[in-house]
Write a structure and sequence with these properties.
By secondary structure, the protein is an alpha+beta fold. Residues about 185-209 have low confidence and may be disordered. The protein has helices at about 5-10, 20-30, 35-55, 85-90, 100-105, 110-115, 145-160, 170-180; strands at about 75-80, 120-125, 130, 140-145, 195-200, 205-209.
């Protein structure tokens, strides 16, 4: 049993672990100054053990399922992506995936928004990108900086006969390969494409803890 769970549950019969008892456990851990994310890990560990008890016919229902876990959005932190990290990121890309990453860094578009991006949504006249398929369902406009303008015009010259900015089907596979490569940027950090952000001057990665 996990070390953090032993003081609370080691002497209890499995059937006596109820949702009410778990709520008490959560309250006690909070009073002790334990982070919500740590409590979530404790409950996940307990849930796994109790699922095994169900498999072995010691328990009929897992009480952890009736307990609401904490949201961990508050633990998402944003930091500046260094020039060295950006270079490693781009070096890990194949040539046809590199424009996708550059545009993501300079626009803040999510992966789904990028692969569905069409030329009709890009206005070279107004220097902006119209993003229609957003998570919120609302249309937003992204300004095009000099780097974006240069690469978009280059892509447009190559793909002007296709309605999509990125028409190739292998983009998802290429990205998965690239993502595995950049995990080694640092041992403790994972880079998630949909959380790469950049304004005109600053690169950022949203890092989850």
């Amino acid at each position: 049993m996990h070390a953090n769970l032993i003081p609370y549950f080691s002497e209890l019969e499995i059937a006596k672990i109820t949702p009410l008892l778990l709520e008490w456990f959560i309250a006690k851990r909070l009073d002790d100054g334990v982070k919500k994310s740590t409590i979530n890990r404790n409950l996940a560990c307990l849930r796994k053990m109790l699922n095994k008890a169900i498999d072995w016919d010691y328990l009929r229902e897992n009480p952890v399922k009736k307990v609401k876990l904490f949201s961990e959005k508050e633990y998402i932190k944003e930091r500046v992506l260094t020039a060295e990290e950006e270079e490693k990121l781009l070096n890990a890309c194949s040539e046809h995936i590199k424009p996708v990453i550059i545009i993501a860094l300079h626009s803040g578009l999510r992966f789904g928004e990028l692969i569905s991006l069409q030329w009709k949504n890009i206005s070279f006249e107004n220097i902006q990108i119209k993003v229609e398929k957003t998570i919120s369902g609302k249309t937003r406009y992204v300004p095009i900086n000099k780097t974006l303008l240069k690469i978009l015009k280059s892509l447009h010259n190559k793909n002007d006969n296709n309605e999509f900015v990125f028409p190739f089907k292998s983009i998802k596979t290429a990205f998965k390969i690239m993502k595995k490569s950049i995990i080694n940027m640092t041992r403790s950090e994972l880079v998630y494409f949909q959380k790469i952000r950049k304004d005109e001057n600053i690169n950022t990665i949203v890092q989850s803890y």
